[in-house]
Queue: 4 jobs
Job 1
Amino acid sequence: MARYKLTIAYDGTDFCGWQKQEPPIAQAEATGSGAHVDPTLETTEPGRVALRTVQAVVERAAREVVREPVLLFGASRTDSGVHARGQVAAFTTTDDPAMLARGSGWPIERGTEALRRAMNGRLPEDVIVTGVEAVGPAFDPIGDCVAKGYSYTIHASRERPLWDRRFVHQVWEPLDAAAMRAAAAVLVGEHDFAAFAAAGHGRQTTVRTVHALEVRELPGDRVRIEISGNGFLWNMVRIIAGTLADAGRGRITREEIGAALATGDRRKAGPTFPACGLCLEWIRYRV
């Protein structure tokens, strides 16, 4: 068998997140997710609909290229509306000579660049495979990950953004970047981030390590938050972004952020910022 690691970039605006979703028809209609139904995607069971997700469309492209069923596993389950420059996923396909003779599979000698181009030719305009690498059969996009990096971009102005409005979140007040940096320092290191996680996160532990947390001022009244760590809880980066923005507006102090960490009380942290400003930048693996 041949296994391939994909690096994927996408504009998450029109996707219902990364992970494949096939809710019952009635559930999709009741929850309003019917707007994300993609009739071109196949479902595994009757009576269900396939929502438009990144995993689903990339898996379909891989299946069409290698001409056999494949299962695509991703490293990060980004939410609806979240973008990525460096999502990582992997799938396995046959390199059996008999199957190859019938037109199935993708042998290593055929080349990873040819596989990348073939897949991109079958993908919609808001997602692209930026890299393909042949890996060992045991490569696990989730289990082998040692660090992830995200960014959150804020447009701090009363003037609405236009050209990149899908990739920034607007706040109307100016932000004090120095105050945001001082607040960010409180969150670096290993902490219990229960106060910075959405309810129902489903994790056994809320202890995570933030390796770095930077606040950068950009042209055009932009502030970019860059965070890396060994893993993140559901909505953790968006809550941290909302909390740092509150620090930049003078609504919360370093001491209050420390109290949120110490108590695990979600009410003591800042708001959950929208998905549009969030981007998965990179994922690192063991050498």
Job 2
Amino acid sequence: MAQKNKVIAVIVNYNKPFDTLRCIKAILQNSQKTSTIIVVDNASTDNSVSILQNHHQIELIINQQNKGGSGGFNTGIEAALKYNPDYVWLLDDDAYPDSHYLHFALATFSQYPDTGIVGAQLLDIDNHNIIVELGANICWDHIGTIPIGRRKQRISQHYTLQVDYVPACCMLISRQVLETVGGLKDFYFLHWDDMEFGYRVNQEGFSVRVNTRAIAFHKCYDKAPSPTIRYYDNRNSLRFYLFDSRHVGMKLRVIIYDIIWTILTRPFSKKPLEVYILYKALADLLRGKMGKLDSTAFWCYRISHSNHFILSSHLPLSERIVMANNLKQQQHSFEVFVRDAAEESKLGSQFPVRQINHGLMAHIKLFFSNLFNRKILISTGYYNKLDILFIRRAYYDGQNLIKKPLSVSIFFDIILNSLKEGENK
């Protein structure tokens, strides 16, 4: 006898094999069984493939290149549709479902026949009493979204919400939707692909819903996004509002306020890095360059042995020690700036150091000595007087060296603060 609801699960893995194994286990333990579990390895650079190949209860597809979240899911969806399923269940590698998710998600389709996608009451993976998201709505008065229930207490009552979209980390999609509107758009790569998909599904007359009893778990979105993630958010949101949505008023608003106004006020921005990221996102969008960001994003420095790194005295001492040790181990040329004799005594036996004098002539000498060379000053995430003395400035975000573009506004603030310091002495 054929299974009443044939469900194919699709997980996209990228360098998280043990998270993926946890997700597979949760699917297998679900009260409603799936017909097949497809795992798409998105060109992982670790030992994911060798680990997942040993799992006999999955179908493993190995992408030869990283296609991003949207491309990875589409690879899995294409494979899933060959099984002629009733539903395709998308899951991120770092998410996993509650044991009754599928039962309540399928019940939602039965209760509301116009439903095309069912999401989850997404709970914090580290605290099951906190909501990560109950789906979200798209803003039409400014660029952005309105997540529902974020950081609120878990909902115990049973009700169903109708929303603009649900995160792709756990969504159950009817075959009718996939046959009518297609899958996600590959060229989004990361971020806004699920927003656009939900919007397109709604536009075609289907509904996107969240059942509070259909529960899944995922990390909270509390970590500050990297410049690369902010690039995808900028580029893909602009793509959505300008080209994929049908909201004419929002298109005009984005062009006038989010593009033209930002370009005109760029020199006076106090967050020049954000403007530079927007420039790159807009330039790539207008050139039709979607998909994966190239590896030479101009806000990141590529660490090279031809560079000489200087650790600013404005960095906390503990950070200078950690970074100096890393540079030393990797045999890079570097120098550590210290504030006083005590710091010099503490660091001088381990690293090349130089004590910084804060007089005017010392700053002038420092400026000209670093004007025509490849020295990169690694300073804090905020500007200080020392930063303007180097052509190449960066701060370390824990993963990358991020360029520190200067604006007229920041330069003016540095001068004013310098004058105030002089008056106070």
Job 3
Amino acid sequence: MNVLFLGRGKVAKALHSQLCETAHQSRLVASRGHIPPWPDDVDLVVVCVRDDALETIARRLAERPMRAAVIHVAGARGPEVLAPLRGRCAGVGRAHPLASFASTRVHPGLHGVLWRVEGDRTAVIRARRLVRALGGVPRSWSGVTPSAYHAAAALLANGSAALAAAARQVLVDAGAPPREVDPALGALLRTVAENLARLGLPRALTGPVRRGDAPAVAAHLRALTRQSNEIKELYRASGLAQLSLARALGEAPPEALAEIARLLRPAVRVRSRRNPLKR
């Protein structure tokens, strides 16, 4: 195929760069200001812009009839945002990569990445060809609520970065060399991802909650006493979320998991019931 990526951001550059390594043709065109015309032999236009700019781009593209199909890569928006293009192109759709794009220069590997693909028949066919060329796995997942789907992706991709930042702070405060912390945590996260991909849940869970090691959890909480409330609450929330996985595994004694739950739940402050009129 002849593919044109519309945009100059992280996603557009990553997809364009990696498609250039295949037998397909790839062009990268800026989406801001005037969009220059492109040759008639373009088969697929991939719109890689911010969610709030999709309507504007769709209206601008609708001014020029084309033989290409047009898709976007936004996770929270469906194909209908490109509806103004119907009848002006070969079809519209959405192909969202379930991947994390953090830089315009350092691109994530896309092999094995799941893409949620949906839309008009021609757009879907061409989008699936694009996904497979990039080593991805196209899936429709029809019926999945877009906002819930996007929330799940944000919970893992963005939440992992926040957890890594908290872990970094704890390590640096404990005396670890700051320059060595990020690569070390990145390697740790990679092994977690490998466990998840190969073993699935709940077997990917490791650590003291899985073992039912209440003394270790208590020691962690003591070590975090001088950290910010945000870090302490992140640890507590993460530990509580691990309990259901540990119960499903069934390796830890129930009473040990109950003790961990008690340790992780913050103490409830009881308000005084003294009569406010009495001094």
Job 4
Amino acid sequence: MDLEKMSVQEIRQHYLVNHLPASGQTMARLQRDPRQGVRAIYRILEKRRRAQKQKHIRMRSLLHFEELLWGAGIQYVAGVDEVGIGPLAGPVVAAAVIFPPHTFIDGIDDSKKLNPTQRADLREQILKHAVAHSIGVVDVEEVDRLNVYHAGLEAMRRAVLGLTPEPQHILVDAREIPGLHIPQNKFDKGDGINFSIAAASILAKTYRDGLMDQFDLQFPQYGFNSHKGYPTKQHQMALEKYGPCTIHRSSFPFVGEVCGKFGATFYQLKASLLAASSPAALKRAEDHFRATGTQLTEHEVRKLRICCKRLWSQMSSRQNPGRRRVTF
């Protein structure tokens, strides 16, 4: 095209509206054009080019291990991740997903970095492109029996076993899944650096959020539809007011504290700490806690230490704004 004979509007229509590709030579001519409007078009195109380059780099990074395995002839590569380790209520959920070789879905990322609308849209795309996907659920009773760490592993194991076809290789976030004969690679923070694991995290998160929305209809006083069972201030206040329901994890220290399952010494010490109205009174209560700490369990000691830190911080903020004292 003879750019010199084209109007600014025609150039804009070709390259910005119709998205015609601009060669390196064309970009150089746009950059040197004496018209301010044409140079503005160049800057927009250059910004697009850089964004596309970054997208390509990110895609290659996310797909690095999948491409290695696909290139070695391993067709069925499964990404696996779990969600729901931290909440005070609800099940642990894991997902496993297999994509055809060389599949990429723009926008895939760690589910925690995405908002609900983005996760819902990406879930539909994942299900559309996937060869297979599976969900593994470990309910609250099993979480309390197994402990939450092993519940996460069991949820991932169930998700993998639910895949058809069976995967030839597994990419998993942080931990290796026991009880499987399939080769595995684990990645620290894999849901943020690996495509298949990130996709699995989105499937697991959207599925678990849907379950918690259903529980909210059954137990509306707790607000499960907003916090999904995580220990937000709203959730803790509701738990203290109403007590636990059937989907609360009784093995978790905070739930046990609310249920009165801690020892009498713990509640006496906590009451004396909360009643302290001055630094001197808080110091005496803290010293008493230190002296009687051997009568407490590890969880009880940890909870009271957190309470002390919070109370000292609040008292210091009231008396000396900007300063904070941390004990222990």
